[in-house]
Amino acid sequence: MGSYRCAFIQRTIMTQPTMCFSVDTVKLSKYQNNFLKSSEGIDAIQAGELSGEERLFMALLDSNLLNSNIMPAQKKIIHAGEQFDEAFIITSGEVLLSAGEKSFRLGPGAVIGLAEGMVGLPSRYSIASLTALQVKVIPFYKVDTIVHQLPPELKSILVTIIKRNLAPK
User: Fold this and answer.
1) Residues ≥6 apart with Cβ < 8 Å to 119
2) Could you tell me which residues come within 8 angstroms of residue 13 by beta carbon, excluding any fewer than 6 positions away?
3) What is the secondary structure of 86-125 as a DSSP string?
4) Which of 39, 67, 77, 100 maximizes the CB count within 10 A of its CB?
5) Is 67 in contact with 136 (CB distance < 8 Å)?
6) Which of 158, 108, 100 lies closest to 129, judged by CA?
7) Three-state DSSP state, 71
8) CA geometry: angle at 124 spanning 120 and 127, to 5°?
9) What is the per-residue pLDDT for 169?
10) What is the pTM of this model?
11) Which tens digits make up the pLDDT trace of 47-63?
């Protein structure tokens, strides 16, 4: 659905904030666990049937290095200015990010707090769940262990995400 770095939009009473990032979970639901490691998965990747975001999402769903958690709808995840203790990868549901009168939504596949938490910066946004959420949790005290076990491709994606998110706007 586009890049998670989409521009803020003005929130009004008549419109709901735009979805800025979400993988197509309906499309991905037809694939089984460990699909990326199967011959069908390799064929799908080679045929260009899966985007980089979709491949990363599926790899993280299959990861046993990250714990899963469920959050209720309307739960405040973090207030602007607070430090992240852990990052989240949304596997199901939506969140609302807001700063003042500006807001946008993120869905499955979006990563929350990783870049800021990795370098100790406070959140620029207040974040709350719009719906019930399922997330994979990335505790920062475990990041070194997790990063050393990642394939080189995922390490490169991680570095790219952090640099992109922390770039001056």
Assistant:
1) 162, 166
2) none
3) EEEEEEES-EEEEETTEEEEE-TT-EESHHHHHHTPBPSS
4) 77
5) yes
6) 108
7) strand
8) 105
9) 59
10) 0.76
11) 898 888 888 888 888 88
